[in-house]
Amino acid sequence: MAQAKQRMAKRVYQARADVLRPQLVQLQLGLKQAPFKVLLIIAGPEGAGRGSLLNTLAEWLDPRGVETFSWHPPTDNERAHPHAWRFWRSLPGIGRIGLYAGSWYTETLRSEARNRRALSAVAAEAERIRDFEQVLVDGGTLIVKVWLHLSQEAQGRRLRTLRSDPATAWRVSDEDWHHHRIYGRMDRTARLIREKTDRPGARWTIIDAEDERARDLAVGRLLLTRFNQQLKRMAKLPRTKAPARVKPLRPAGLRRLNALPLDQDLTAKDYDTLREKWLGRLNRAVRAALTSGRSIVMAFEGWDAAGKGGAIRRLTSAIDPRDYSVIPVAKPTEEEKHAHYLWRFWRDLPRNGRMTVFDRSWYGRVLVERIEGFCREDEWRRAYAEINDFERQLTDHGVILLKYWLHVSHAEQLRRFREREATPHKRHKLNAEDWRNRRQRAAYEVAVGDMLALTDPVNAPWQLVPADNKRYARLEVLRSASRQIEAALEK
């Protein structure tokens, strides 16, 4: 049996820790002014000392700037949401450090301990994690990932030592011993996961965990080094965010938008008759979906004064108010400005058996944020793929996702603006920003066209609604929603 490695002398450790600790405090002070957050992911075999390492870091760091997360089996509420929902909700705020003793890696590793699985299944889960981390990294998050290495012999010694002491025996479980017995299998799985998820911006660092003192110092130094590297990277990013160019990325989307027939007509009498029919059909479809455990997400986009609010009110009149929420998406709060743009939408997703309607949505990233220069060009260009991936995660979970663009002509929009100006109880609906957006109609049409062309997959297609005639638009939303929900339930 291999001998235990010689431990770092306590006085040497203390001297080095005394130098490192104030540097980490300075890191936190600098992080308060930095435009990013830090995630420290700590993983490794049982007995590697994740808990004791966290205790040391908590002692070295100012706890007011730290959030600590430990893994737990998903609760019923977490299972009732898409897989990544709980991880998005766990993310710390800007300027803070999140310490993860258990993370999105834990369930994948523990699943292997329970049942041997095909490497292809493990690789698929690892790739899903890689994509999740890439979205965070692209959004400016610093991810520091540490694998605490412990040989099987060292793990056995550590577990026996813990078990022999009455004060620590409780920390060793039957599951820990099971992991020790299948060390080789677990190690192969861990290697595969690290290989699949080791990418620029989210690299793994393997640190020997046999000597706890050397381990803790190594992790502290790594955190400091990666933080300083991130500061240098962020300093190189362009400071100004110029408004986007007007040239379309995909002309086909703009052609589709311009080809939409807006001269639809529907009399009040016909509307009243058809509305009752489709309200009943929608009610039955929604009840069938929700009672079967499916959730529904609707995203409404469209021109100012296109009638999104009216369409939403007519649609929800068919549904039990206890079953749905309507979320009007306004300008982001200060907290939301400093978070990833998708965070606030992940946060508000419905659980299974519920419905959420977004009055404007995550598409603001490729519409107003693109046109007004609220994000860099590389950010809005990347957003199409990020949004497609976000929506794929929803539909993979079983969410019925419906997306609507309400389209009105330039002339009809002006007529509605004038009507709002002349109607006292409608004046609050019109402001200077609406007029400003109208003057940029050509640029917005290009952005809408690109959105339609680049975010219209089979699992989450766009429904274009001619909205010059309000009655027709409201009825079309009812018909489309009913048919789409029914079709989703038949699959």
UniProtKB/TrEMBL annotation:
| Residue span, Polyphosphate kinase-2-related domain | 9-232, 270-488
User: Is Cell membrane found in the keyword set?
Assistant: no
UniProt xrefs under PANTHER family: POLYPHOSPHATE:AMP PHOSPHOTRANSFERASE (PTHR34383:SF3), POLYPHOSPHATE:AMP PHOSPHOTRANSFERASE-RELATED (PTHR34383)
Q: Which organism is it from?
A: Lacunisphaera limnophila
**Might you give the EC number(s) for this enzyme?**
2.7.4.9
Which NCBIfam families does the annotation name? poly_P_AMP_trns
Q: Name the gene for this chain.
A: tmk_2
* Protein name, per record: Thymidylate kinase
Output one GO MF annotation.
dTMP kinase activity
Give the domain of life.
Bacteria
Q: Which Pfam families match?
A: PPK2 (PF03976)
**EC primary class:** transferase
Q: Which GO terms describe its biological process?
A: polyphosphate metabolic process
Keywords in alphabetical order, please: Kinase, Transferase
